[in-house]
Specification:
Helix content is 30%, strand content 24%. The protein is α/β, with parallel strands linked by helices and 228 residues long. The chain is globular and about 45 Å long.
């Protein structure tokens, strides 16, 4: 565990860790709000990027830092290892980052969230449903959906966002996921946008809604063992 995180000042930082999966050092971006100096237990959001970009994308291309500062959230943006879709090594990397940040900072264990766009939206579904006990809720955007995992959604109450004219990931994928969750009696919120296509501008325009959704969700029982 890198205890030096606790000594970082508020603001954006680039961090690295040694992957527990293959021993390769990986980078991620970390944002600490001014509220970190209060000593209070803060909420924590993990944000996953899409194809063709890296761990810098959310911090450079969206308003995530501004919203996180206003709301008092710690934010981590992992590197997705190219086109790995956060499977296998990528999955373990995200869990390693969560363990590192929650182990070094005062994080509210009932308020840990994950959101992502495109490939990162798939990663949001995949990680959220495979490790549902870690998260209070999830927000996949413009994402393919691992339909076989949907029964594991439980009480995550996903906030699904997709543009009706998305030319890269057809909106039918999110429509089908919302319909399947409804048929299973599992709660979710579905928002269909217009005018964005697959553009990541949709992320920033929806971040206030996403963080409102986060604020309304806590885990009743925090995950008992973050080292799973």
């Amino acid at each position: 565990m890198d205890e030096s995180i606790a000594k970082l000042p508020p603001g954006a930082h680039v961090r690295s860790f040694v992957s527990s999966a293959d021993g390769v050092r990986q980078r991620y971006c970390l944002f600490l709000p001014s509220a970190i100096t209060s000593g209070a237990a803060l909420p924590f959001a993990v944000v996953l990027h899409g194809k063709g970009v890296n761990h810098h994308a959310w911090f450079k291309l969206t308003t995530i830092k501004t919203v996180a500062e206003e709301r008092g959230y710690v934010v981590a943006a992992p590197n997705g290892r190219g086109k790995a879709y956060y499977n296998e090594l990528g999955e373990r990397d995200v869990l390693d980052i969560i363990d590192e940040v929650t182990g070094a900072l005062t994080i509210d264990p009932t308020r840990v969230y994950v959101a992502g766009h495109s490939m990162g939206g798939w990663g949001t579904w995949y990680l959220g449903l495979r490790h549902a006990a870690r998260f209070a809720t999830i927000c996949p955007m413009a994402a393919p959906v691992p339909m076989d995992l949907l029964p594991a959604t439980g009480d995550l109450d996903p906030f699904i966002i997709h543009d009706a004219d998305d030319e890269i990931v057809p909106v039918k994928k999110s429509r089908q996921a919302a319909a399947e969750l409804a048929s299973l009696g599992i709660s979710c919120r579905y928002r269909e946008e217009h005018g964005y296509g697959h553009d990541s501008r949709m992320i920033s325009d929806n971040l206030p809604r996403v963080f409102d959704w986060f604020a309304a969700h806590r885990r009743h029982q925090p995950h008992p063992d973050a080292s799973e």
